[in-house]
Amino acid sequence: MAAEAVNTARIKEVLVRALRLEGMAPQSIGDEQPLFAGGAGGDSLGLDSVDALELVVALEAEFGIAIASEEVGREHFAHVRALAELVSDRLAHSPPEASHV
Asked: Does 42 have pLDDT greater than 70?
């Protein structure tokens, strides 16, 4: 995948699908809605540490990236916009895929 800004809508789709947030539409999640309880800025989605691990695996599979364990924290997982920025950064710093000749 080319290094490009990742759309928050795509992150929301991965979030809902990977965490099986039944009855929740991706578009109902705010770009800056806190993902974990205790976050600032309104009602959180109430995710926990197990959800964070599942989300990392899903993002890595969806975008073909690696997310280092030190990147899994409050700053990068605060809200959807922060996740989109993290994924965009990982894509920008991923080695280009080898071309088949």
From this structure: no
The mean pLDDT of 21-35, rounded to a whole number, is 93
Taking Cα atoms as reference points, which of 91, 24, 95 lies closest to residue 83? 91
The SS3 assignment for 9 reads helix
**Is 78 part of a structural domain of the chain?**
yes
Q: Give pTM, 2 decimals.
A: 0.82
Nearest CA to 12 out of 83, 65, 64 is that of 83
CA atoms of 101 and 55, how far apart (whole Å): 35
Dist CA 79 CA 70 (whole Å): 17
d(CA 40, CA 57): 25
Instruction: Look at residue 21 in the predicted model and tell me its pLDDT.
Output: 92
Does residue 98 fall inside a structural domain? no
- The encoded tokens of residue 35 equal 């993902």
